[in-house]
């Protein structure tokens, strides 16, 4: 990997991020544990805001314009189990998008700090 470029560039930029996010939504759609949380959610908005967030945590040229993780996930009573399951679905999504594992780890490391802002709220 090229240490002078951002993780976002190493991933392949906007088109790869949108491929990951599309795959992730498919994974959720086929997961009977996680899908119920998304009943009534605005999926187009979810895709757009999650793409921005992944772009930001990989040092891409984006700004996050969504609500805070705490605002969004409050009232869902997300458990450790469901959080971990959702991370697994994101890993599946990145595998299907052929994202190399060292890069997957960088994406996950960027998102990991959000965990404390969504569990048991
Ligand atoms: C890595 C962990 C996660 C990240 C980075 C993440 C990120 C996001 C983002 C960026 C949004 C859109 C915010 C907005 O619309 O302003 C969102 C919405 C949502 N998230 Fe998460 N999320 C995570 C984990 C979870 C988990 C574990 C669940 C439930 C099991 C969940 C359920 C939802 C739902 C249902 C919405 C849509 C809310 C709505 O449109 O009404 N998320 N999430």
Automatic annotation (TrEMBL):
Under Gene Ontology molecular function, one entry of this record is:
oxygen binding
Positions contributing to heme binding? 73
Q: Does the keyword Metal-binding apply?
A: yes
Q: Which Gene3D superfamilies match?
A: Globins
Which branch of life, at top level?
Bacteria
Which UniProt keywords are given for this protein, alphabetically ordered? Heme, Iron, Metal-binding, Signal, Transport
Name of this protein = Hemoglobin
